[in-house]
Design a protein that fits this description.
The complex is a heterodimer of chains A (about 110) and B (about 110). Chain A is built from no helices and eleven strands. In chain A, strands 2, 4, 5, 6, 9, 10 and 11 form a seven-stranded mixed sheet that branches. A four-stranded antiparallel sheet of chain A has the order 1-3-8-7, with no helix packed on it. With about 110 residues, chain A is mainly β. Chain A starts with a strand and ends with a strand. Chain A has strands spanning about 5, 10-15, 20-25, 30-35, 45-50, 55, 65-70, 75-80, 85-95, 100, 105-110. By secondary structure, chain B is mostly beta strands. Helices cover about 0% and strands about 50% of the residues of chain B. Chain B has strands at about 10-15, 20-25, 30-40, 45-50, 55, 60-65, 70-75, 85-90, 105-110. Chain B is globular, with a radius of gyration of 13 Å. Chain B starts with 8 loop residues before the first strand and ends with a strand. The model of chain B has no long low-confidence stretch (mean pLDDT about 90). Classes of the chains: A mainly beta (about 110), B mainly beta (about 110). The interface of A and B includes residues 41, 45, 55 and 99 of A.
């Protein structure tokens, strides 16, 4: 059973561009959460998807949006990229209880 | 939301026991204490979770006093591969919708 997978592994963009990150949850998990982790900091909650809808959201601007598909996989979209969006983006899936994290996507904004 | 406080960093040597203490003065009755481990450029990995007294698994032990206002993660006989950041969180155990709130964690460096 594959765990949580994310793609791509690394990504380089320039300011103003848009990016889409993808996440496949652990088999059977129906809830997907996204976190942003800046260098040297702990992960910060962006939002969570359940039944294809955003269930709750952290303190992130509307430039950050997402989607969940019927197969529970999810996408994170960031528009109008800023230098400060450079970070490791983590996806975590859960069913009942503990959240399991993927390896993350390293986004660098130049 | 409960907030946790833990040391910023710790140093140890191979073979030693490492104890990382976490304070969570405002922990709620239904909250569990949960520890994650994170290696560079990887996602956090669940280590151990407990509610009270002592919990032990193949990786670590977790000691929780009766008042539950603090807890101690104990790593027996650490190796170089235990060098990582360790996060202490308090979470409602069976609530999959809970947004995890991470602090800055404890950076553990294990030296040869």
């Amino acid at each position: 059973d594959a765990g949580v997978t994310q793609s791509p592994t690394h990504l380089i963009k320039t300011r103003g561009q848009q990016v889409t990150l993808r996440c496949s949850p652990k088999s059977g998990h129906d809830t997907v959460s996204w976190y942003q982790q800046a260098l040297g900091q702990g992960p910060q909650f962006i939002f969570q998807y359940y039944e294809e809808e955003e269930r709750q959201r952290g303190n992130f601007p509307d430039r950050f949006s997402g989607h969940q598909f019927p197969n529970y996989s999810s996408e994170l979209n960031v528009n109008a990229l800023l230098l400060g969006d450079s970070a490791l983006y983590l996806c975590a899936s859960s069913l009942e209880g503990g959240q399991f994290f993927g390896p993350g996507t390293r986004l660098t904004v130049l | 939301l409960a907030k946790t406080t833990q040391p910023i960093s710790m140093d140890s040597y191979e073979g030693q026991e490492v104890n990382i203490t976490c304070s969570h003065n405002n922990i709620a009755t239904n909250d569990y204490i949960t520890w994650y481990q994170q290696f560079p450029s990887q996602g956090p990995r669940f280590i151990i979770q407990g509610y009270k007294t002592k919990v032990t698994n193949e990786v670590a032990s977790l000691f929780i006093p009766a008042d539950r206002k603090s807890s101690t993660l104990s790593l027996p006989r650490v190796s170089l591969s235990d060098t990582a950041v360790y996060y202490c969180l308090v979470v409602p155990r069976m609530d999959s919708s809970y947004k995890l709130i991470f602090g800055s964690g404890t950076r553990l460096l294990v030296r040869p």
